[in-house]
Automatic annotation (TrEMBL), chains A, B:
Keyword Cytoplasm: yes
The species this protein was found in: Sphingomonas japonica
Entry keyword set: Acyltransferase, Amino-acid biosynthesis, Cytoplasm, Methionine biosynthesis, Transferase
Enzyme class: transferase
The protein, known as: Homoserine O-acetyltransferase
Purpose of the protein: Transfers an acetyl group from acetyl-CoA to L-homoserine, forming acetyl-L-homoserine.
Active site (record annotation): S163 (nucleophile), D334, H367
Gene from which the chain derives: metXA
GO MF annotation terms: homoserine O-acetyltransferase activity
Subunit structure: Homodimer.
Lineage: superkingdom: Bacteria
Binding site for substrate: R233, D368
Amino acid sequence: MNAAATGDTAHAMPDDARFGLRRHVTLAGPLRLDGGMLLSPVEIAYETYGTLDPDGSNAVLICHALTGDHYVASEHPVTGKPGWWTRLIGPGLPVDPARHFVICANVLGSCMGSSGPASENPATGQPWGMAFPVITIRDMVRAQAMLLDHLGVARLRAVIGGSMGGMQALSWASTFPDRVAAAVVIASTARHSAQNIAFHEVGRQAIMADPNWRGGAYYGDGAPPTAGLAVARMAAHITYLSEAGLTEKFGRRLQHSPERPNGAKSFGFDADFQVESYLRHQGISFVDRFDANSYLYITRALDYFDLAEEHGGLLANAFRHTTARFAVISFDTDWLYPTSDSRAIVHALNAAGARASFVELSSPFGHDAFLLDAPEMNRVIDGFLRAGER
Amino acid sequence: MNAAATGDTAHAMPDDARFGLRRHVTLAGPLRLDGGMLLSPVEIAYETYGTLDPDGSNAVLICHALTGDHYVASEHPVTGKPGWWTRLIGPGLPVDPARHFVICANVLGSCMGSSGPASENPATGQPWGMAFPVITIRDMVRAQAMLLDHLGVARLRAVIGGSMGGMQALSWASTFPDRVAAAVVIASTARHSAQNIAFHEVGRQAIMADPNWRGGAYYGDGAPPTAGLAVARMAAHITYLSEAGLTEKFGRRLQHSPERPNGAKSFGFDADFQVESYLRHQGISFVDRFDANSYLYITRALDYFDLAEEHGGLLANAFRHTTARFAVISFDTDWLYPTSDSRAIVHALNAAGARASFVELSSPFGHDAFLLDAPEMNRVIDGFLRAGER
């Protein structure tokens, strides 16, 4: 345990949370951020599963995506849904609390208990709002490293993440080359493209155009910019699915309603098409569990992400000092972070002399495939982790 | 001239409008719409270039896209920009007023002079707003047919359009098989996909979430829902460009500003990246020239478009009675209406025994390629039109 910790609370868990251990720690810091600011204190909400081996060698860090959280294998306290990666993590699964000490922390800038725009600014006693410093993927990783110090984990057997989680895995191997034995990078990229940035900018403008946003100072009166955040979510959600997947799932099928039991066009602006109804639902349900300012900050961190730029413009330089093994996995219908992005990572790993394996998996589900039933992905990860444990 | 015309005004044109003849006609109608309503009167703003041959055989109808207008080869009165298709239409170009009588009409539902939500509802003397009937692509085409009646054009030598213009060209050949000798369908589709609908739904929700929208009744006080409309435009604009084109044009290049003359991240929420600045500009400049309600109506017409559905579910049936020749053109980087959509049109034309030629052109510019410098497209159209004139 690290002396910098100023508080750590383990809450009793309800039975249905299975094997999760809900925790929150306030670390004194300060954490020096890429933007130059010192953040103190650093609050981190996290979950752990399993037990750390006496030699501290079995820790596996799971990194979550943009709108994810640390409830990776525990019931979400707001939605009541099971953990978001229970297909990968659990008894008998590739990441197994019976043999791994699994850690998942809410990223810096998020809104599920870690420091972010909705958390308290110690200088004012009020929520940070837009006074919260702009953070980077590397800042998120540095905060996780502070948490590992606190937990007594010197080195990770593996760091695993999809999408933004994969960026964190890459950043981990690059920023802390001695602390990572293996990295699994799924449906991810080493840099955000112009199109990636463009979609995020649409979302940010949607939030900021909502009069309820009020420069981010909306926490006091229960009127957050939900309309803008819902539009942002809808736009982003399209990028998580494939065109073919949308066609298969919805096509041009019409909604059935009491007025139109057989499904017919309304010649109005109701959600005639099932895909419209689905998207509206995605937008509306998202605002119940996510903070609009956090959405601004995390999309900004994603857009700033360019691992090569942090290393003189050459991606291979990011991996010069790593001793980690890498498994890079892409999905053929992912157009948010397409296979070519994963290939660029693998080329750089090869150029740096790192041990890298790469597989492109087939799935109709686009970017979201890594969160869905993906037996091949599980087999790849299982084999990759066991190879390191032999 | 048709007796139903209640007014036709030819305005004197400034010299810089070149050879355009700005016109507006109010036709008594009524026009029976696909939604069941009767629209009367039907106002149509249009331009013509060149002279109709005595035998009426040289008319070419140009159909515009979602946010286009009839200023196809004339200066736009609001933006002052040259006509949107002066690369295709003009002296010595494939469509040449020296040998063609060129017609381009603002579509029904739009906001540049034709009947739409911003025009006057005769029942109230006020703008229609959301009381304007929901219209379809076929309704747009029927209104154009009324205009051709008024102009004394029985049969079109060609109907030409890109994107939504291509849908109108298809609908023309299907709805008025005896009035179309040739159709050029560029970067288009015979049906809107689930992903197409999804993107439009994001735009509509952005507009409707803007408190200034007020159920569409915003015309009185000079406070239209510009913020929502700008977000809608930004989201749509991404779909008009290719990922590779965005990367080539902007990549991750940063904006230069007085505070950051060498281009550096602001660690704030300014438009750091050039692509952000570009998108914001696209949104802001759009709201000066377009009506938010028109955007709702025309996107709805696009989403409703499914030519096969209008013909018992079999696209070939749409072309059973046509005698037209078809040229179908797609662009390899167009992901809004990809080449596979054009291929489906050509398959149906072949199945119906229609004369169809098909070409996929290479361009880095995505869907917007048809509006940009495309010498190969011009050669294809020129050859296609001349073949029909021999």
